[in-house]
Amino acid sequence: MLTNLIVVIMLLAAVVSVITCREVTVSNVIPRRDTDGNIMDAHDGNVFLYDGLYYYYGASYGLCKEPPGPTGCTEWHTGGCGFQLDHNVSLYVSTDLSAWAFRGYVFQMSSMKTQGIMFGPRVLPNPKTKKWVMWFNFLPATGTGVSQSQCAVAISDTPQGPFQLVTEKVTTLAWENTGDLNLFQDNNGDAYIIYNAHIDGSIYNPDHLMSVEKLSDDYLSSLGKEFNSGYFGQTFVEGGAMFKRNGIYYAVFGQCCCYCVEGASVTVYTSSSPLGPFRTMNNLGNEGHAQLYNVLQFKTTGVEGYGYLWQGNKWQSSPDGAKGHDFTYWSPLSFDEDGNVKYMNYTASFIIDVISDIH
Ligand SMILES: *[C@@H]1O[C@H](CO)[C@@H](O)[C@H](O)[C@H]1NC(C)=O
Ligand SMILES: *[C@@H]1O[C@H](CO)[C@@H](O)[C@H](O)[C@H]1NC(C)=O
């Protein structure tokens, strides 16, 4: 049955491509709900366009109640909702960035041999291997005290998983004791990880420093120091994201904000090559009081054909205290003639044209 359906779709695809353009209102003050009416529980993940569909992967924190306060990190490991062992990775899909269909949990921490805390999952489809690859931050629960965060990788034949663990610790990275990570895919299929690490291996040392590193062709590991940009930008940073526009590579990240209510102002760095050298550009401010998790390139009307959305987590913002109900804050990015990103004013809601082109 499913095979027949796929064949029909493939036959159709050979002759038609369905192009839709919708004017969409994006609100930052009304909770984002999926097509079943549930508040979207996807935080700290990535959103990208693939073959006419927007994929939104994110960490799911569920209905765990976070005590109110300036940060969700006061109860480190014990009780804090961001440090539970049962986090899942949610997938939502949309053709217009407005109606999001929940496709289930594509990865569950309960499936891991080693128990631990997962945060910040990011997924990319690999055009060479035709596999979907997920990277996430993994804090093993074993051992005593505060464990060191590491990068884990999982893989799937389909976008909706279930993703299978490949490794719970990538050992090829240039820097140890890693923090937040994000993935970036270039037009030629090459992929990069932007991540911060602790310079001396101590989690208490404030030297969270950012760098970019090329992934292997299969996206399952990285290429190490020789393919690392070297640390750049300010210290004590996290929440990085990369994107490309008119041949310029942008890296954007801000001050550390451990599930913090304040959010983080982000600085823009640019380069003509994905591994730098990066030049420090301007700061985009923190008017939305959110922490960046993704910059989404979406298809829109106009000469350029693409627009960019800044997407951040508003930690501790959930009206009912459930961490899974924390708001996310999205803002369109504006550029001047030289490609500089303009300061981000606060926006409660905005309207964009979203084009979907399904082959
Ligand atoms: C993750 O999924 C499992 C199985 O559906 C569920 O029991 C658990 O509550 C979920 N975790 C969270 C944080 O929602
Ligand atoms: C932000 O607001 C200022 C003051 O109203 C305005 O001049 C500027 O154009 C706005 N920036 C953007 C990107 O809209």
Automatic annotation (TrEMBL):
Q: GO molecular function terms here?
A: hydrolase activity, hydrolyzing O-glycosyl compounds
Tell me which domain of life the UniProt entry assigns to the organism this sequence originates from: Eukaryota
Query: A Gene Ontology biological process annotation?
Result: carbohydrate metabolic process
Q: Which UniProt keywords apply?
A: Glycosidase, Hydrolase, Signal
* InterPro entries (alphabetical): Glyco_hydro_43, Glyco_hydro_beta-prop_sf
* Matching Gene3D superfamilies: Glycosyl hydrolase domain, family 43
One Pfam family, short name: Glyco_hydro_43
- Please state the span of the N-terminal signal peptide per the UniProt entry: 1-21
Record's family? Belongs to the glycosyl hydrolase 43 family.
Q: What is this protein called?
A: Uncharacterized protein
Question: Origin organism of this chain?
Answer: Didymodactylos carnosus
